[in-house]
Every structure is written in C-alpha cells, then in structure tokens.
Amino acid sequence: MAGNSFGKLFRITTFGESHGAAIGVVIDGFPSGIEINETLINQDLQRRKPGQSKLTTQRKENEEFQILSGVFEGKSLGTPIAVTILNADARSKDYEHLKETFRPSHADFTYEAKYGHRDYRGGGRSSARETAARVVAGAFAKMLLQQVGIEIVAYVSSVADVGATVSDQTVCLADVEKSLVRCPDENASSEMEKRIDSVRKDGDTLGGIVRCVARNVPAGLGEPVFDKLHAELGKAMLSINAVKGFEIGSGFASTKMRGSEHNDVFSSEGGKIITETNNSGGIQGGISNGMNITFNVAFKPVATIMQAQTSVNKDGDEVTLEGKGRHDPCVVPRAVPIVEAMTAIVLADYYLRNKTQQVG
Amino acid sequence: MAGNSFGKLFRITTFGESHGAAIGVVIDGFPSGIEINETLINQDLQRRKPGQSKLTTQRKENEEFQILSGVFEGKSLGTPIAVTILNADARSKDYEHLKETFRPSHADFTYEAKYGHRDYRGGGRSSARETAARVVAGAFAKMLLQQVGIEIVAYVSSVADVGATVSDQTVCLADVEKSLVRCPDENASSEMEKRIDSVRKDGDTLGGIVRCVARNVPAGLGEPVFDKLHAELGKAMLSINAVKGFEIGSGFASTKMRGSEHNDVFSSEGGKIITETNNSGGIQGGISNGMNITFNVAFKPVATIMQAQTSVNKDGDEVTLEGKGRHDPCVVPRAVPIVEAMTAIVLADYYLRNKTQQVG
Amino acid sequence: MAGNSFGKLFRITTFGESHGAAIGVVIDGFPSGIEINETLINQDLQRRKPGQSKLTTQRKENEEFQILSGVFEGKSLGTPIAVTILNADARSKDYEHLKETFRPSHADFTYEAKYGHRDYRGGGRSSARETAARVVAGAFAKMLLQQVGIEIVAYVSSVADVGATVSDQTVCLADVEKSLVRCPDENASSEMEKRIDSVRKDGDTLGGIVRCVARNVPAGLGEPVFDKLHAELGKAMLSINAVKGFEIGSGFASTKMRGSEHNDVFSSEGGKIITETNNSGGIQGGISNGMNITFNVAFKPVATIMQAQTSVNKDGDEVTLEGKGRHDPCVVPRAVPIVEAMTAIVLADYYLRNKTQQVG
Amino acid sequence: MAGNSFGKLFRITTFGESHGAAIGVVIDGFPSGIEINETLINQDLQRRKPGQSKLTTQRKENEEFQILSGVFEGKSLGTPIAVTILNADARSKDYEHLKETFRPSHADFTYEAKYGHRDYRGGGRSSARETAARVVAGAFAKMLLQQVGIEIVAYVSSVADVGATVSDQTVCLADVEKSLVRCPDENASSEMEKRIDSVRKDGDTLGGIVRCVARNVPAGLGEPVFDKLHAELGKAMLSINAVKGFEIGSGFASTKMRGSEHNDVFSSEGGKIITETNNSGGIQGGISNGMNITFNVAFKPVATIMQAQTSVNKDGDEVTLEGKGRHDPCVVPRAVPIVEAMTAIVLADYYLRNKTQQVG
Fold this sequence. Notes:
The structure is a homotetramer.
Chain A: E1 5-6, E2 11-15, E3 22-28, H1 38-48, E4 65-67, E5 71-72, E6 75-76, E7 81-86, E8 101-102, H2 108-115, H3 131-147, E9 151-159, E10 162-163, H4 173-178, H5 186-201, E11 208-215, H6 229-238, E12 243-248, H7 259-262, E13 266-269, E14 272-275, E15 283-284, E16 287-288, E17 293-299, E18 309-313, E19 318-321, H8 332-355
Antiparallel strand pairs in A: 1-2, 2-3, 3-7, 4-7, 5-6, 8-18, 9-10, 9-11, 11-17, 12-17, 13-14, 15-16, 18-19
Helix pairs in contact in A: 1-3, 1-8, 3-8, 6-8
C-alpha cells in the first residue's frame, strides 16, 4: 500500500517526480462554497521556492500552478481540487552520472532497493520538489481554517547552534518575512545569515529548527487514542524531507523536569478555562485544549554538499562523487512554509473530523 | 472520524475504558498459519503491568488475556484476532471527587470539551491502561516479525538527567530485564533507581527517554512520501501516553552538525551495501536501508503526583486536588514494552505493505 | 489487506468464528451522548436468531450480548463500543467429517485456497453466525438515525416465485413481524409458508427477495463519485451471506423502459421539491433526494440441504456428503433484520460523512 | 468524507468536471517495473468516447491523455501515476438555462442540495465524462493483470427486451468490437441496432444489460467478511453512472431455484478442483474459486431525452425543459469498456490485497 495520500477527511494525494512532466496534488474533501484565494497559494509557493536569496540555491523552478478542477466561479465545489505545476525543462543529462551511483544520505539507494526501477534525475520522487505540492494543499487548508479563525505561524528558531528568542503570542508572518532566514529575532537572524554564508563558501550545509505555533484552535480537536493531534502533527512533520525530530510543548526538555513543575495548572480567565503554563503545547490526551499549539521540528543539514565524497555504485564498487553545481547551504528558511502547510492540512483534517462527533 | 485503529494492513483497533468491563484489541490482517506464542503475550504484559517493583505503582491490574477469535489449533486463521482483558473490580467511588474536576495535565478537561459525556473513573479511555491492549497486539506483531528475523530491543536511556551508554549492536532483552529501570548500563541504572526512589518520597515524578533499536530490518520498508517509515514510527510513539518527543537517528543533534560530518558514507561489506555511520537511523528517504533502525522517545514526568495541586471544576471555580493513593514515580521503565510493541506493529504493517510492491 | 471492517466514520469491525469462543463487534465513531437502548439490540438479535419458528432451523444459538466498552451511565462516550456474544458450547466432533471435505457452494474450498489453515467447524468465519454481530452494530446505527428521524423497514417481498404486494409508504415493523415469513402481505405470506414447509420436507431450500425502504432520509447523503449512496448500499447487501443481487429503485426492470417513462418528474409539494415517481429509488447521482430509498436484495437458496451430495476432498477425490442434522429451509425471513442492520450502518455512516461538507 | 477514491492497494482518485479545465486520475499503488502500454489506454478511451457511430451521441470530446508522473523510460516507478485529459472548449453558454433548473433524473437537484454551489455545465462532476478517467485507470489495471494472465471481457447482453446468447468461455474482444452495439451475438446485435435507431428518432432512450466475464482469476482473491469480492465488484459497478442493478452468477434468478439445483458440485479435472456448474459466478464465501467470474450490470435508459419535459427550478416553480442538441439514445455500448475498467481495477486491487496473506 503506497503512501502518497495524507489526511482522512481533508485528504491530499501528491504526485510527480522532480524531472518528470509535472508535479501536483489532488485535494478531496474540501468543503463547497469556500472562496479560493489564488494569491495565498502563490505567496506560499514563492516563500518555498529556490533562489529567493543568496542563502538558498540559485536553481530556478517553475512555480506557476494551474487549478484543473473543483473550483467554479471562484468558489469550491466540494469536488476534488486538482492542481498541477509543470516542471521546467529538465536537463536530464546533468544526472547521467547518478544513474548507477548512490549519493550519501540521499534516497537513491533505498529507492533502488524498494522499487528496482527509479528516476535518478534530481532525486525523482524523493526530491524536495514534491513539497511544492504540499504548499499548494496547505494554502487551501489555510483558506478553510480562516473560516474559523485559526492561524498558523512558523519560523526558524535555530540554525546550527544559533538560537532565537521569539514570543509565541505575538510572532506574525510579517515579522518572519522581514528576515532572510525567516527568524523574527533580528540579532539571531543576522548571526544565522553569517553562519550560512560561511558554510556556503565551504561547500557545506547547516541544519536547524523550525518552530510552529497555531493560535485560536478550539478545544476538542484530536482523536484518541492513535490519532492524537500531536501524533498526527508529528507524522506530518517527519514526512517532510530532512526532518529528524519532532517535539510538542516541552518536548525532550520535559524528560528532565519533575511532574510538579511540568504540570500545567488550570485556571479561569474571563469565563474560559485556561492553563497557566503551556508545557502541554496546547494538547492534552491528544486533544487540543484551546491554548496555543506549539512544536519544534528538527532539520538535518541537507545531504547535497559541494565537496567530493566517497560512495558506491550498484555493484558495490567504490566511486567518488564530485561536488558541483548549485546547492542550498541551509534549507531551513525554505522549510518554514512547508511546516505551516503540513500544520494547516492536519488542523483542517481534524477540524472536519471533530464535526462528526455530534449528531443533529 | 474516530482514531482507535492503527496500521493499514496489520491493523489494530483497541477499545475499553480503565474502569469499564474490559479492554481489548482486534487485529485484522494477521496472516494465516502463524503459530501463536501465548507465553510471549504474557511476558510482555508482565513487563508493562503496574506493581512490578518498588519503582512503580503498587496498584494491581488484571493482566489475564483471552483470545476470542482468529486462532484455531494454535495457529492463526487469517481472520480477525480479538483479545480481551477483563478489568479488575473497579472501585468507582474512589473517583467521585473527579466527576466535576479537571486534573492538571491529564485529559479530563479535553475529553469533557470534546465528548460532553465522559467516564471520569481513572481517566477512562485516556488511561494508560489502554496500552495493555497495544502490548498484546505488539506481541502478535513480534510473532510475525520473527518469521523474517527482525528483532526489536528497547531500553531506558535516560531518567531525568541521568544518561546511559549502551551499544545498539549488542543490547538484548536479557540485559534490559536485569535492571529494575530497564537500563542495561549498570551504573546508570543504579543512579536512576536512586533518583526515582528519592522523587517517590517527595510524591513527585520523573520523566526520561526510551531508546529503541530494530535489527535485521531488510532494506525497502517505508512508503514515500507521507508514510515514510520514520514518520509512522514517530506517530506510533507520539500516540503513547506521556510522550512529548521523537527523534530518528541523529535527531535534534543533527541540527548542529554540518552536512559533511552528518552524511553516512556508503561502502560495501561482504557483498552488502552498508553505511559507515548511521546518522540516518537506518532510514533514508523514508525507506529502511538495512542498517539498524534507531530512535529516541521522550516521556514527560507523569501528571499524577502525590502533592496538593490547584485546579478548576466544570464551572471554572478553583478547587484543590489532594495528592493521595498510589502512583508511579516514573513510568519510563514500564514504557519499554509499549515502545517495543508499537515498533513491532509499525514494522509488521510496513513489511506487509512492501509485499504489494512486486507482481507475480 | 483484510476486510473485516465496514464504514468510514461510523466504522464497525466484526470478529469471531461460529465455533470459537465468541463473536463480536467494535464500533468506532459512534458519537457521544446518545442513550443506549439495549432492548432494541435484543429485539433485533431475536429476529435474526435461529429456531424462531418451524420455518427456520431448530439449532440454538446463544444471543446474549455484553457491552464491554464505550458506554457509561447508559450513554455513549464517543469511544469504541465493543460488544461480544459468547458462542454456545461447540460440539466440534460433529464437524470432523468436514475437515478435509468441501461442501458444495459453501466457502470451505475458497477459505482453504486462500488461508491454508481454516476452522472447518460450522463454516468458521464464513458462517452466517457472524451476522449477529452486524445486527448488534445495526441496532446502534438505528439509535443514531432515530435522533434525526430516519426509519428503515425491510420485509420479504418474494420467496421462490411467490411475490407480495406491499406499500413502501406505509409498511411498518409491526406488520412485518405479524408474519412468520416477515411478509406483510397476508395472502402471499401464507403461500410462502406453504412453499417453505413443503421444501423443508424434501430436505431442500428456497431463496427469495428482501425489499427495504428507508424513509425520511434528508436530501444530500451520498459521496460522488465512487461512494455513491446506492453503491455503498449495494456493497453492504452483497456482503451478506447468500446474497446474489442488488437493485436500487427501478433496478433491472429499468433496462426495459424508455427514458421518457423512466424519468422522475420534479414537482413541488408544500414548499418541498419532490419527484412524482420514484424510479430513482430516492437516489440521484449517488446522493439521496429526500424521497424513499428503496431497493431489493436477492438471496439464493442456502447451500446446506438435507440430501446426499457429491463433492471432493482436499486431494480432489470424490466423496459423498450425507444430508443430516438441522437446517434452515429458507433463511430469507431471518435475513430481514440483517438487511435493516446493514442499511442502518450505511445511512449512519453517510449521515456523518455529510456533516463534513459544511464549515463553521 | 468525500468519495473520489476507489481501491485500497491499487487506489485511484479521479477529478474533474465535464466543462472544467481537465479531468484526470491519480493511481497510487501501481507496482514498479511494469511496462506501460499507451496503445491500450488509447484503445479503451476510443471505445468509450462519444461519436463512435450513429448509435451514440455526435458530441465530440477530447480524448488525448497525458501521463504526468510515475512512468520513466517506459516503465512504472512505483510512484503515483497521474494522467490528465484536457476538456475541449466548453461552450458554457449552452448551459445557462440549466443554472437554476433541475433536469429530471439527473444529479442537478441532489448536487444543489448537498453542495449549495455547483457547476451546472453539462452535469459538472456528475457527468459521465468522469468515466474516461476510470477507463484510463482500468487500462493500467489491465496491464498489471496481464502479468498474471487474468483477462476480462464485457459485452452488451441485452438492450430493452432484446437479449443475446453468448458463451462466457469463448467470448473475446474481437467479436465484441465487430458489433456496433458491442453484442457478439450477430442476430441480437442487429435487432438491438434497429431498436436504438428507432428510439433515437423519437428523441427517446433505451437501457440494457452489460455482462462481464473474468477468466483465469486464481482461487483466493476476496476479503471476508465485508470486502467480499462480489461485494466490491457490485460497488464498483453501481458507482458507474446510470447503473441500477448488479447480480453475480445466478443473481436474481437464484431466488426462484431450489438449493439442490443451485448448488455447484465440486469435481476434479486434471488435478484441479473445479465446479461442474457455476451458479456461484466464480465466487464462494466472497473469495474467487478459480472458475469464471460472471456478473450482470443493469443500465437504465439515460435521462437526457430530446423531448420536452416538465420540471422545477430552485424556487420550486414549474418550468418546461426543451429537448434539444445531441444525445445518446443508448449508452450501453459505450458502457462496456467502463465495466471492464472497473472490473480490472477491483481485480488488480484484490490481487495485491491477497499478497499480504502470506509471510516470507
């Protein structure tokens, strides 16, 4: 059973190889009558695309999308929404040398092991190019969530060992977008830039952490016991290329705390029950409690480096891979809209799932 | 859409409240003709149960299971396997005081918000009692995996700030079980015991990390792009009570590494392609590469403490919750078989999923 | 991927072999706060059970059910509802002769071919005993549908070539239950009885048709394009033992009509849009239109006859099967509550599915 | 939860409105390494398209498909296969008069009731145009089935009250395609032609039955208890536009037979266990038994007629719909490749599902 669909009620299926004819997504379960905001789709695609600044790869990708179905007179029909993005002309010859060779820490070897036959050009299906389709789907999910007031903001909270200090209460898209690295802490942002620039010159790469906050999520979203809200968020994030870790609320730090300091005490504020701290990250027992949902996503340094590396070919013979061409010294800034997109998709799905809890 | 099922081809559905008549599980998709090892089921249930040592709660639970279907003459039929565990006599009156009150960092408030009507006795469906059903299902998954030589070992790698040093290559069940805290590093184990004993006296609790390694997993398990093997493992772990974080391979530490140090160089060993390091944690592009699968699971300190705490009732009025009764000062040792069980369930499912990749 | 679950949002999983420890069902997705009517469950089980009259087998089955979970203080919790029915003491020896032999038009041969290992006692999993679990689940579905006013009535509309004349508008449970064969047309009922009695004496069996009508179904239930409401009803019915055909509305007869006579003309009645005829059977384009949903289900004569038959054993050698013991000369009357149950399950599921069509 | 996907392991998702930009399908779960036969796709699309003969509508549709993903160097990659067919220029103005009006026995009213907002041009999503996407997916399924020798032939077995006599053993594509009505019985075919031609002149329509046979299906395909093979086939067929009934093997006729005549006696032929008759239609207990799978599908006369009809608009006011433009007097011949396609999709899915039944 293949795994190219995500979500149950708000369900997306992505398709496409990085150097095939097109990539795209079908969204099934998008409710009818919602106004479609193409500007939002375009804006998020621009935030994800390569070549935005000196910090990212200078490779060009086509980001023009076409909505093939599911929208009529500017509003959703309740039928499947299919969106495609044509791939720019692929220079397949650039990849001939990878036909028989496995790049370290890429998916070349495992795709070969699983499928036998693979599209070796630019990683094929395993390329991060696929995440453009997720960003499109995420924009649709955001349109749905806007109907009920839910908002999502992600940002870079660390690059290598440079961390940032940001308020989950007030962080906003505008502040994030002011920074080339998408870190709204100005000092940290500037330090991160320097690090990335320096590693770029070495032909090397850096990782980092994207933090995400979802605000105004009503209490009640989440489906015990296996489909706990943070479990699905975790899966969504771990399905993004280069992600190695996920933590909700207090996360790994909680393992060093005592229960008495970790517990979030309930109190009442203006008739609404709240918690005084938020180690729970807005989710208790797998269900949202109305507080901010907060989590961190760990991105490894990407595997494509501009340095010579040793590897093997199909026959197991040692080969040397030259570092050449263009690369992303740090993809974490470009990962921000992808994290937002996957968050929006999960919340839209769970919003719809929760509607089936009441009859009449 | 409710969330009490897990897995696609090896699919489990658990049911039951902690103080209802019974808990149980139905496993659909267990292949026919596999010999059923009831000793293994019993052994894993014993490892999970409360009251194993002074380090865990002295509460008694019934752990006698009954297989109702799917097994005939000692072998699986290929039909659904239903297993129930009756609950011991519930002293419901012990819980009357929780009828209208929300315990801090428990699921009382969110279940109330979501369902309106809830079983307040011992957490009801949100109780960790439910994980006994997972352990049963996990034992069945282990039986399947044994057919193909896959083995899984989990252990406690840290409690609070006490960490252990353990080899992923050689760690084995026997060594884990020698330790009361299920940490096969003797020095660390003894230090962890002390910490837990000390916090128990304070009526407080501690968290920690469970590390898991799966060995002899063939290359090729994993379903891009959304059902990457580590994404599903992450969801499985995050669905366990008290889990706040998950990391595969190098995990959060990878965010501070350079690509050139993080990349796992391929080489050839006895005709088999291996990687010289294993920052990937045995998974690349979401598909197993034949190396050990390794990951960490972060458990928060459990919320039930033996100290008075402030909270609110349904009406938002402040109440004080007394700390009384029995509690688990640190559930991490008991979580070890649960982590193993969920790992086995994921691997059994993905083993079956991968079989549909080839025709003929 | 095994097939023991049905429905998406109102999702049932049945388990159990006819001569194993128990059969049962888990219902996931039953909304919280609904009052549980155990009398209804019991009543439907009584209508399905063997030995109700001289027209059905005199075999006794235990029909006492136990609700293990999901219900608290008489109301649903929104958590999985597990129900078991213990099997009466199985006299397994009665079935020794079937260990190696395939009964004609039973599932013995195909289960052997598929699973290798099978429970040959009384058909095992393929026994109609399994439908008791469906009847239980159907009673729960009816409880949900009662909240929104939907009602379902099924009845026997033909046995062999004896047909009945019944009004879909007025037929009701009380009238159906007055008849031993569950046919509310008195003359037809009495003729059917005679036929069944006569065939019983021959040790033979008869088939027939169950007709079902669902009233007060709101317009809008159904999920194009694959999950059309009548497609799912068809699957539900065809999954019942001994069913060979399904038709919605005008059904097979429509193939002999002209479009101009078949089309259902719309008109307006008291502000509501209706159709003047109902060849559509209440469903157009796969979606309910607010008219009565009507369909027919064809049951073959059951395969167990009290006559000697030729067959083969595992090795393909010819054997003779004696006709002995007790049998049902016509199961169609007992199929009525099963058809109702599966109808209720589909409608409950589609009712919930339709709730996800609107935001806010 | 929307319903635009079909199948579990061989899973298709179709999209598109008849007068939108494009229709298409994504196939997820198609195994890797299978040679792609574009000629077969094209051939089946040609068999389905309008305007093939004087018996079908003269409307033109674009049938040029484009494979966007999942195929590389002529072979499948194991990744999702997306295929689109652009719609010819839509003359939307032709449909302005249907904006507020509900055509009898079409889906206009029910789509309005369910979705609120609908694409009224040519039926939008409810148009049979969508079945072109199914035919594409069916061609891929046929490629998979060819690997294991399964073949599928469908043909028109009746139009109105004109029936045909055809052998399930020998009927073949070439014979079917010789006939304009796709009925391989020459006499019946010629009579059917006359009837269709006559009704066409009246501006009216006729229905009929498509019969389908699948040969060389191995014993063992089918998933008890809900996903019985014939239950899924039934759902697949009932999801096709204009289908009102489905019967497997002896079907509705079985209701008039006695068990002793209906039972299929087993015997042995060349070491293989067979049944001497095939009332079972090749399926017993929901699992294929190795005999031919045979079933009938009832198509109503299509709703679009060239006669004036009475109906209502959104406000419930009576309106008259003129019969004008082009129409299909009998779609049954064009339904033949659609029935084949859906059969192939079900069998491909169940072939893969059955692979998960054995370990190792």
